[in-house]
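Researcher: I'm preparing a figure for a lab meeting and need a structural model of a single chain. I don't have an experimental structure, so a prediction will have to do for now. The sequence is pasted below. Please return the structure as tokens so I can convert it later.
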Amino acid sequence: MIQVFQYNEIEETEIFSRAMDDTKSIESVVFDIIEQVKQRKDEALFEYCQRFDQVSLTSLEVSEAEIEEAFASVEPEFIRILKEASENIYAFHSRQVRNSFLINEKNGVVIGQKVLPIEKVGLYVPGGTAAYPSSVLMNCIPAKIAGCKEIVMVTPPSKDGKVNPVILAAAKMAGVKRIFKVGGAQAIAALAYGTETIPAVDKIVGPGNAFVAEAKKQVFGKVSIDMIAGPSEILVIADGTCDPVCIAADLLSQAEHDKMASAVLVTDSEALAQAVAEELENQIPLLSRQEIARASIDNNGKIIVTDSIDQAVEVANHIAPEHLELCVDDPFRYLDQIHHAGSVFMGKYCPEALGDYFAGPNHTLPTSGTARFSSPLSVDDFVKKTQFTYYTKEALEKVSKDIEFFANKEGLGAHAKSAVIRFEAKQEKK
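Model: Understood. Here is the structure written out token by token.
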């Protein structure tokens, strides 16, 4: 059963505690997998598919016929929903596009910045205990908007050697052209270093299990990555007027993800706290993933009772959750007080699941308190910036002595010389 704490009595370490994956135990395993893929390429991938996915493949790439067959097999109602969700995601992320700029405010000086798409992007889509077509949309659409020329997707095959049709349907909807049947750390290694079949990319995005997260960590530097994601988490701020049935359901929407997931309620109502605790016990046995939800709630869930909603907001800022629900009548009153959260869901009719699938803002979010310094996945993650500088001869001459002086302060004589040598040579010729 979930634990209930009084804020004034709970230890600070308990407030901030999160379940974390033990990466030490898998570091060497992942390192070996990456080395095998680097050296043996496709051969290693086929072996790992056999070992980890219990499937013997003859081809890693999903054929166009397989994509069309999967798309045709998905019910039209889901295709309609995918389309509307895609439109919402596109509308939101299209507002994130950055423009190049040029500054020409001083005589003889032009400076600026070019915003360029990352050319090759790899998208990891989990297969494991659940299929996530939503992740396809959330990761691919911003890349498309950014203008990435090549987007490839990797996802684990089922034991029948096929990819879940809803994932392929989402990929077709999002415009992914190349899809490969490989998952786990080996898929990340393939994207980072390339194989005979899978092209190497410049950046890898997408969620995954602890092995995928560790692999992304180890290949970072060879390629860029979006983030090292930890277990899913939700924090709900709720006042005493909230329906405990709805609050319990919202907490379980994240608890069912993973046994390591974290679900936290912070409320100013003792009565609501107790009612939600009881309601969780009513709802968990009804879930298809009740074993996962039970472990998450019992081991990582908590309810914290505060003196006020303002104090609840302070708690939320300290925890810096991935998902934050403001289940109060006037959520906009508190929005400016929220400083650390991946995504904020406003009001009593905005469950976190709305953001997972449909509303438009991205669902790939910073976890484990990293919302203190990290942001949701966005178009920014799929671009790079190149800056440029132009000075005329007269403009450089005007500041050359200043540059020389500055460089000498740092003890870098060659820097200093390069700033003035053009004009010294001119004087010598005279």
